[in-house]
Amino acid sequence: MRDFDAGDDGMAAKSQDLVNHLLIHTAEPFSAEQFCPGHITCTALIFHPEGKRVLVIHHHRLLRWLLPGGHVEETDASLDAAAAREAFEETRVRIDATRKPFLAGIDVHGIPGGKTKPFHLHHDLIWCFRAASDEYEITGEAPEVMWAHESDWPRLDLTPSIRNSIRRAAC
What ranges in the chain are assigned the alpha helix state H? Predict the structure, then answer.
């Protein structure tokens, strides 16, 4: 995270500070069961093999268009590996293993409480990848999936943190 440069993106800079605070001051920052102040999650910003478009999913619970991602598991070799695993589980997309992933964004956001979990924060690390092919699958976690071009962002209501991460990664 030390190499991440938020530039003039104040939201990403504030989120970076919050993630650093979480890492320093909490006992289990990667545990999905740490609700106060939350936990680290990892998201995959995946560019189409030919560039320009990114893979987005319609989230099954939050009912909005997002990037694929989720919780870190003990078996994940690294944080970018957690993002890649989540993307594969949700969409079956194949990542181009010849390209090194990099941190393209950081976003701390609230997650509504559910049946057994209270409202909490996801301290989300957004990792950039390129897909090995344009193929993906629909799954129970991602009932809608698409390669989105910048012209699709308003219709999909992509959040500013996602838009800024895409722009930062495309530079």
Answer: 10-25, 79-91, 153-156, 160-170
pLDDT tens, 24-72? 999 999 999 999 999 999 999 999 999 889 999 998 788 899 999 999 9
pTM here? 0.94
- Of the candidates 49, 12, 19, 42, which has an alpha carbon nearest to the alpha carbon of residue 163? 12
The DSSP bridge partners found for residue 150 are none
For residue 167, give both structure tokens: 């722009």
Run of H or E including 22: helix 10-25
What domains does the chain contain, in order, with CATH numbers? 10-170 (3.90.79.10)
DSSP class of residue 129 equals E
